[in-house]
Amino acid sequence: MSIPKAGLYKLILRQIFRTMAAIHPDESHTYLVKLQRAKHWTLFQAHPLLLLGLGMIGMLLLWVVLSSVWSWAGVTLDDLHYGRPRTYQTDTWVGHNEQTGHPSHFIALNLNGRVEIIEIAGGDPTHTRIYPGPQLYGTLGELTPVTIRFVTPSGKKYPNMIVLFGGSQLVYLNVGGTFILQDKEGSTSTLSVKTSL
């Protein structure tokens, strides 16, 4: 028969107190009181630093669990909203082959961490253009949502395209029936830039 460690401790204390009561019968009442207290020993009689340490370990575990749940919830919501691979679609009038009366259709795609914007000009698939974007790096680079906004500058007839991803943005200028990437200095370029997240 195996005795749990706490039970063994109580058993030893009980035997010691009974032996002491037998040796000193006039002090048996004191030993009986100590024996009763030993029977009701609880965790709350432990040293306060032990309780503080257990509380700190509990809070650390709670923080780790809640951080994991928060991260999982964010990725799951993005999965529901943007899918895998991350995809965003919109229709807008940009002045590219839209004489048929249909707006251009845009698809922003994060394919394995590579941002691509697909334009179906005027809704006609024979006039499809693909604008390369940056390569996203990092632990969740392929899960970063990519969205598009269109902003018409003052004095212009058609909007420029702004690509938003992971707190960054790229501006594509609407020039001559196509979009051209604007560099940080304000000049235009047809090359993509590489950024890391």
What can you tell me about this protein's structure?
The protein is built from 3 helices and 9 strands. By secondary structure, it is of the alpha+beta class. It has 3 domains: 1-41; 47-82; 85-189. α1 runs antiparallel to α2.
How do the strands and helices of this protein lay out in sequence?
Elements: H1 5-23, H2 28-39, H3 48-82, E1 86-92, E2 104-111, E3 114-120, E4 128-135, E5 146-151, E6 160-165, E7 168-175, E8 178-182, E9 188-189
Antiparallel strand pairs: 1-2, 2-3, 3-4, 5-6, 6-7, 7-8, 8-9
Helix pairs in contact: 1-2
DSSP strand count: 9
Instruction: Look at the helices and sheets and give the structural class.
Output: alpha+beta
- How much of the sequence is in beta strands? 25-35%
For the termini, the CA-CA separation is: 61 Å
Number of helices: 3
Helix content: 25-40%
Kindly provide the radius of gyration, computed on alpha-carbon positions and rounded to a whole number of angstroms: 35 Å
Q: Structurally, how many domains make up the residues?
A: 3
The strand order across the widest sheet is: 5-6-7-8-9
- The geometry reads as rod-shaped
Provide the low-confidence segments as ranges: 189-197
Order of helices and strands: HHHEEEEEEEEE
Characterize the main sheet: 5 strands, antiparallel
